User: Which sequence fits this backbone?
C-alpha cells in the first residue's frame, strides 16, 4: 500500500495557507442525535477499584516497573483554586508568514518538567520556575516526524525525526531516526536508524511505547527496539499483502494491518508480543471499512469509519480478540485524526481526542449543540461488554467538556471556561456514582483561550496535580508580528500543604 513520497510538510505553504483559512472560518454546528447499539459479551479487567473521590480511594494502583507506560492516579488537591505554575512563549516568528506555521508536536509532563516538541528540538521547562527560561533544550538534528502521548513510569518517551537532506535527494523528507529522551534531564538516551524506511514520512509514520518496547510503523514497514538498550528486537517489511500501518501501546501492543491496495484495502488488528512481534490473535474487520484507529490497546477498542471517511462506530473486544460490542457514534464526535486540521501529521493511529477508554467503559464526547439553552455538549460512558450507556456528564451552556484520560477507574474531564463569567476546570468523574470531584479551577489567557482550550489545536496534559495546555502550531500575530507567541501554560493548586 502506498502513501506516496510527499514533499516535506515544512515547505508546503499552500497546504498551510488552506489550514489557516480553515482556522479562521466560522463553524456551523449540526444538531445532536444519539444512538446506541447493544451487543452482549465479556468484560475487561480493573486496574483500580473504589467509589470514593480521588483523594479518598482506598486501593492503590498496581506498582509499575520503570519501563511500563505510566498510569498516574491523581490525589485530590488541598484546594481546587488554581494558580499559574508555568508559561512560555516562542520568539523569532516575525519573519514567518502566518500561512507557514512552526509545528510543535508532542507535550509531556513529569513531576518537575513540562517538555514540548517544537520544530527540530524538544524544550524542557521547569514547573514552578517563573523566570521563563528553559531548563534544557535537546537539539534533534532534524524536524519532528512522529510523537506519542505515552510516557514511561520513570519519565521517558520516544520520537521519530526527519534528518536534513539536500533538496532533490532521494531521501529528502524521509523520517528514519528514532530517539529516546529522558524528559527530566533532556538527555538523549539513544538514537537509531530505522531499517528500510525510505517510505517513512511525516504523513504516515506512527510511534508508540509498550512494556519496555518502542514500536514504529509506517505502512511500508515497521521496527521495534528495546527501550533500555536501543537494541532492535524485530522488524517487518512490505513483502506480504498486509502491512503495519501503525501501533497502539500502553499495557499491550496492538498492530493495525492494512491489507491489499486502495480502494479495496481491508483492515486487521492484531495483538502482538512486544518482544518478538508475533501475533497472539487477529481480529478482521468487515469489508467497506475505510479507516481504523486504536484508542486503547487494553481493553482493546477500535474506532472505525464504516462506509464513511469519519469514525462511525467503536468496536470493543475481549482479551482474546473476540467481538464484544459495537457502539454507534451517530451524534458523537470521536475526534480521530482531528489534530492539525485533519492532516495526517506526526502519527494518527492512537489519536482519538474525543474517546477515552477505562477498564470497563469507553467515554465518548457528543457533537456540539447549537441550542444555547442546553449543555454545549456532553460525555457518555458506554459499557464495554454490552455497548449500553452507563452515565452522562453534561457540559454547560457555552462551555464544552472534553475527556482527558483515566484517573484510576474515574475519568478526568476538562471543562471550558467563559471569559469574565466562569472559570475553566478539571474534574474527576465517577460514572457509576455520577460523582464529580473538582480538581482545579483556573482561567486560560484571554487572547489564547479558544486555541488552548480546543483539543483539535492544543495538547492538554494533566499530571501530578497540574494541567498544561500547549499549542500544536505556532503562528505569528498579524497585528503584532514581532511579539512572542504563547506556547504553553500550566496551572496547579494555590492551596498550601498542611
Assistant:
Amino acid at each position: 500500500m502506498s502513501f506516496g513520497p510527499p514533499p516535506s510538510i515544512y515547505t508546503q505553504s499552500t497546504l498551510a495557507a488552506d489550514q489557516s483559512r480553515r482556522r479562521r472560518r466560522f463553524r456551523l454546528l449540526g444538531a445532536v442525535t444519539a444512538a446506541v447499539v447493544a451487543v452482549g459479551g465479556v468484560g475487561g479487567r480493573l486496574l483500580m477499584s473504589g467509589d470514593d473521590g480521588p483523594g479518598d480511594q482506598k486501593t492503590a494502583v498496581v506498582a509499575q516497573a520503570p519501563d511500563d507506560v505510566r498510569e498516574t492516579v491523581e490525589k485530590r488537591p488541598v484546594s481546587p483554586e488554581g494558580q499559574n505554575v508555568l508559561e512560555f512563549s516562542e520568539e523569532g516568528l516575525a519573519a514567518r508568514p502566518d500561512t507557514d506555521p512552526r509545528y510543535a508536536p508532542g507535550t509531556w509532563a513529569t513531576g518537575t518538567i513540562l517538555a514540548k516538541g517544537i520544530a527540530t528540538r524538544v524544550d524542557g521547562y521547569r514547573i514552578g520556575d517563573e523566570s521563563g527560561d528553559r531548563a534544557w533544550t535537546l537539539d534533534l538534528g532534524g524536524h519532528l516526524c512522529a510523537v506519542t502521548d505515552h510516557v514511561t513510569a520513570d519519565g521517558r518517551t520516544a520520537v521519530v525525526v526527519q534528518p536534513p537532506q539536500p533538496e532533490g535527494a532521494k531521501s529528502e523528507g524521509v523520517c528514519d531516526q528514532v530517539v529516546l529522551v529522558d524528559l527530566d534531564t533532556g538527555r538523549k538516551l539513544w538514537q537509531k536508524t530505522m531499517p528500510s524506511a525510505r517510505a517513512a514520512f511525516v504523513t504516515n509514520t506512527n510511534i508508540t511505547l509498550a512494556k519496555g518496547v518502542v514500536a514504529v510503523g509506517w505502512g511500508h514497514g515497521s521496527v521495534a527496539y528495546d527501550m533500555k538498550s536501543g537494541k532492535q528486537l524485530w522488524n517487518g517489511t512490505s513483502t506480504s499483502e498486509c502491512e503495519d500501518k501503525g501501533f497502539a501501546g500502553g499495557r499491550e501492543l496492538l498492530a493495525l494491518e492494512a491489507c491489499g491496495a486502495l480502494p479495496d484495502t481491508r483492515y486487521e488488528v492484531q495483538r502482538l508480543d512486544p518482544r518478538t512481534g508475533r501475533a497472539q490473535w487477529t481480529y478482521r474487520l468487515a469489508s467497506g471499512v475505510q479507516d481504523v484507529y486504536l484508542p486503547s490497546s487494553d481493553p482493546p477498542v477500535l474506532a472505525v469509519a464504516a462506509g464513511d471517511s469519519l469514525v462511525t462506530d467503536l468496536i470493543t473486544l475481549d482479551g482474546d480478540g473476540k467481538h464484544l460490542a459495537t457502539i454507534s457514534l451517530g451524534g458523537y464526535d470521536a475526534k480521530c485524526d482531528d489534530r492539525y486540521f485533519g492532516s495526517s501529521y506526526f502519527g494518527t493511529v492512537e489519536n482519538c481526542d474525543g474517546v477515552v477508554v477505562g477498564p470497563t467503559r469507553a467515554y465518548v464526547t457528543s457533537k456540539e449543540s447549537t441550542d444555547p439553552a442546553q449543555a454545549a455538549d456532553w460525555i457518555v460512558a458506554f459499557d464495554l461488554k454490552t455497548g449500553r450507556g452507563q452515565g452522562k456528564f453534561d457540559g454547560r451552556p457555552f462551555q464544552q467538556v472534553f475527556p482527558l484520560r483515566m484517573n484510576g477507574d474515574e475519568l478526568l474531564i476538562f471543562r471550558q471556561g467563559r471569559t469574565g463569567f466562569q472559570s475553566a476546570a478539571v474534574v474527576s468523574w465517577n460514572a457509576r456514582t455520577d460523582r464529580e470531584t473538582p480538581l482545579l479551577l483556573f482561567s486560560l489567557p484571554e487572547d489564547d483561550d479558544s486555541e488552548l482550550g480546543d483539543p483539535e489545536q492544543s495538547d492538554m496534559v494533566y499530571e501530578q496535580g497540574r494541567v498544561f495546555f500547549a499549542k500544536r502550531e505556532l503562528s505569528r500575530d498579524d497585528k503584532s508580528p514581532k511579539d512572542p507567541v504563547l506556547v504553553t501554560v500550566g496551572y496547579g493548586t494555590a492551596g498550601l500543604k498542611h
Observations:
- The radius of gyration is 21 Å.
